[in-house]
Amino acid sequence: MGLLFYKMKVKFTKPLENVVSLKGRSLTLRCEVNKPKADVQWLKDGKDISPSRRHTIRAQGRERSFTIHQIVEEDAGEYTCESTDDRTRATVILTPYINTIIIYVGLHESQKLQHLGTSFKVIAICLTVAYFQQE
User: Fold this and answer.
1) Residue 112, pLDDT above cutoff 50
2) What region holds the Ig-like domain (predicted)?
3) Model-level pTM?
């Protein structure tokens, strides 16, 4: 009786996330696969990406990453990381400034907002910080 081997499909366990970045900066797109030795291919707008002076492709454990150094306007677009069995996509947008929202959650259930006359389990306090690009 012979052995039956099943080849496990390469699936993404952590997808890529959309990124907004400033021109001239570096950014890294990261995702995770279910197998440490899985091969993936990176694409931008459907075209293969090769490692270069500005593009670094890495595989470390189950994490796969693609770094763009010194981002220019042509780097904006849709990026895909694909295996033979699955794919994940993210959009990279360039902007002259970035709004970062920091959310702090933590008021207790018993605390009340008097002007509303009601209780809340949590409340979010937001702080927006804008970073402007120097020309």
Assistant:
1) no
2) 8-93
3) 0.69
